[in-house]
Specification:
The protein has about 375 residues and is of the alpha/beta class. It has twelve helices and 15 strands. The protein has a four-stranded mixed sheet. Strands 13-12-14-15 form a four-stranded parallel sheet. It has a three-stranded antiparallel sheet with strand order 4-10-9, with helices on one face. β12, α9 and β13 form a beta-alpha-beta unit. The longest helix is centred in the C-terminal third of the chain and has 17 residues. The chain starts with a strand and ends with a helix.
Length: about 375
Amino acid sequence: MAENYVDNNEPPVDKDTPLTFESFVETHKPQLLSLGIPNLFWYSLFVKLNEERFDAGSSFMMHQLEGGDWEVLAVKIDSSNPNCVYLVDHAWTYEIPFARDQLMQHKGLFTRMLDLMEIDHEGVVEPNEQLVDRILDRMWQYNQTYSFSHEIEDEPLWYVMDEFGSRIQHNSDPNIKIGPFHFAKNKTVYSVLWPLRDIENNEEVVRDYAYGVTDPIMRQIKLMPWYQPELAELTHSLDGFAADYNEDIMLRIDTPLVSQPYEDLKAIYKSHYTVFTDIVLVSDSLTLENFSFVDDKDKAEILWVSDHYRKFDELTPESHILFINQFPFEDLYTCKHFMSTLIISHGKFDASDIHTRGYSWLPLTFELNYDLKLFIRCFLKRQEM
């Protein structure tokens, strides 16, 4: 399931002050656009959020098939009708480290998840370790996730939609889309559902569990909780895997250092310096009259930046930049994923070896932004052992 970034960094909204549609759009427009909700539905969404109106029951019905599976059927949906946007509630929102404790401590949550995930519990209503383990194992078929976009660590929150949302099945040709939406007025995250096209009466409502993922292998990986991927298609060698990433690492290693070092450091000491920074703490704290801030890097004598600086070869005595808050290649050591990739790229690599990457002394390590395919391949191979 692709992770969603939810913007909760909107201007504060007084919950006791009536919310106008104009202020709703102003506050929530980044979310509306990033989710791709057509502006046709914006006003109705505003009304339903403001009233906490869950009216999907008037347009959809849940139907259990003979084998026990569920499907959600539509009462004819006109995608040009501005009212055809719906709120879906969340049955459970949690962080992974606390999931077990929540299930063990809250009987109502425990029994609801058993029933929602259709886990046979023979009438047991008191939480126990065995049934909690079964919930934790099966929940990945129901889990959704989002992170608040302004958080530094982007720690994901996981959630399970209510019975209606959780029973909407997957199809690579979806007729609806669902995404999480943070409503600033009550600081609550809902899921929003809207049609991608007209839906006929009694037509099954389906969504793409890997919406937006077009790479065939990545789609298999994203759909892994529901469909087992083909292992053969996940076989990769290092030469063809994450080539751009490893090339980026090697380019930084091969970048020349300053070719003309300063012979006399006293020559760069001044009574006043211009500073460029993108770090709020620096701009708020550096108040000495010896420093003034500029908005253009090309006019700065001091760079204090959050991004990794790569152009050390341009820092010569003739450069306008006199100081910078980094030393060459420090990110290869301070960023653990860069360091592990650097070690791996210099070691022996065997695509068939699922126990070692790079050197035997390095714990098996994957940078999942680039190594996800290889990680899944190793996972599946180990599962067969």
